[in-house]
Specification:
Layout (H helix, E strand, L loop, with lengths): L2 H26 L3 H5 L9 H20 L31 H21 L7 H4 L1 H23 L21 E4 L2 E5 L15 E5 L2 E4 L5 H9 L11 H9 L8 E4 L2 E6 L2 E4 L11 H10 L7 H9 L54 E8 L19 E8 L15 E4 L8 E2 L3 E3 L1
Parallel strand pairs: 8-11
Antiparallel strand pairs: 1-4, 2-3, 4-12, 5-6, 6-7, 8-9, 9-10
Family: Belongs to the EgtB family.
InterPro entries: CTDL_fold, DinB-like, DinB/YfiT-like, EgtB, EgtB_Actinobacteria, Sulfatase_Mod_Factor_Kinase, SUMF_dom, SUMF_sf
GO molecular function, one term: iron ion binding
Length: 432
Amino acid sequence: MTHETDRLRDLVATELGRARDRTTRLTEAVDDGDLVRQHSPLMSPLVWDLAHVGNQEELWLVRDVGGREPVRRDIDELYDAFKHSRRDRTQLPLLDPREARKYTATVRDKVLDVLDRAPLEGTPLVERAFAFGMIVQHEQQHDETMLATHQLRVGAPVLSAPPPPVSAGKITGEVLVPAGEFTMGTSTEAWALDNERPAHRVVLPAFHIDRAPVTNGEYAAFIDAGGYDDPRWWTSAGWDHRQAASLVAPMHWTSDPSGWLYTRFGRTSPINPDEPVVHVCWYEAAAYAAWAGKRLPTEAEWEKAARWDPATGRSLRYPWGDDTPTAAHANLGQSHLGPAEVGAYPAGVSPLGVHQLIGDAWEWTSSDFHGYPGFAPFPYREYSEVFFGPDYKVLRGGSFGTDRSAVRGTFRNWDYPIRRQIFSGFRCARDA
Ligand code: AVJ
Ligand code: FE
């Protein structure tokens, strides 16, 4: 056994452990009533996410990679996300909190044993560990979803974290990204999911993109200017939705005589005007951009601004280079319970001078979710391919609730344009 495979086994075990520690924190912060309750029809009960994480881990690592006997074949159907909608999951005969904890722990014990024996020494090395990486990312994605459920929970605060760093200097204006080709997507990133592959050349005309995400202060100016009452700024579907859903401000905002407040994980305070706005839907983002005389960036524009290095012509793994994210680069991993002020991460800037592309808030793009040229579903069609089409918009860059293992310059998230319970914000772009 080589040192290289030992290091890979250690890395996988560490990442599985980090994900489980986070799942444990999110599910032990509340009582059993809060675990089985539906906090919003948009979300699963937390106890479903918990056992679903264990069930996916059982399917892919215990049964598929390990070739072992099922732990609980009888519950596969309950935890198949395509069989029951989120709003219906409290009606199912789910494992109770104690059973769900025991099940996920039993699966994890088996997985660590599978990991010890897995033939990771094949070439290329990292690809042999893909299934483990996929499951690490899956658990972290559900942890972010559970964090969004916490945000929808009503009651006394149960989560805490130190405040994010403050701005190190005002970041305003936009950068000009020159016309030309760049490499979008990846064929080499070990844990990249199917929809990020393969790497391909994309030619873009010149465009301008904002150096920072749109802030609460900027967004409040749009509200104060009557942006929610003027159909000129909204797409027709957006205006219909704005009317039907009575949108007047981002989700979790309320107003009082002193101004706008937001409630975060049970605590209410005045909005910080310098933080990126979160909890806006695609329609709100697009309306703001139109009001500002701009538009949302396409997904390709976002990625070129984030990864393209004009000095070398190469696309980087992250805006700052190829190094794994640290606390200095980006606001990730639920280290803080909200986005950081614009200008708080000078070490995370891209070669073109664009800030906070990774972390803080997911950024809506104008693009529908499609496969890249040469896309091949892997390891299952239901991860991405079944969502391709005009119904979903792509979001990029991750949020304060996204773990570093589950985001990179190529990472693609997607959701319906009406959704805003996710940690979604945006930045603007315009034609050059
Ligand atoms: C990539 C965040 C859209 O949560 O629906 C979780 C990730 N896929 N389990 C989602 C996912 C299967 C997915 N998103
Ligand atoms: Fe899932």
